[in-house]
Design goal:
mainly alpha
Length: 89
């Protein structure tokens, strides 16, 4: 399994208030980014996995919605987050 509970807790602890803060926007965006990076690597090796490709597109859309929300609420924190995660925008 590519996303162990320990890795999830680590992501939430780094970007949320603590490891149990799963609803924080920053933590959600960081988790989606981790999953997107994994699925992108998977699709490089398995070009005809169309179900994964569809999941990836949906995940990118969810992350985009959260990033738009974050940008509306706090532009400085948004810029810091995308710089930290290495997201192009």
């Amino acid at each position: 399994m590519y996303l162990a509970p320990e890795k999830k807790a680590e992501i939430f602890a780094k970007y949320g208030k603590d490891a149990n803060d799963t609803g924080n926007t920053d933590a959600q965006i960081a988790l989606f980014t981790y999953r997107i990076n994994y699925l992108t690597g998977h699709l490089k090796n398995n070009r005809h996995d169309f179900n994964t490709e569809r999941s990836l597109v949906k995940l990118v859309g969810k992350r985009r919605s959260l990033l738009d929300y974050k940008m509306k609420k706090d532009i400085v924190a948004y810029r810091e987050l995308i710089k930290d995660l290495g997201i192009r925008k």
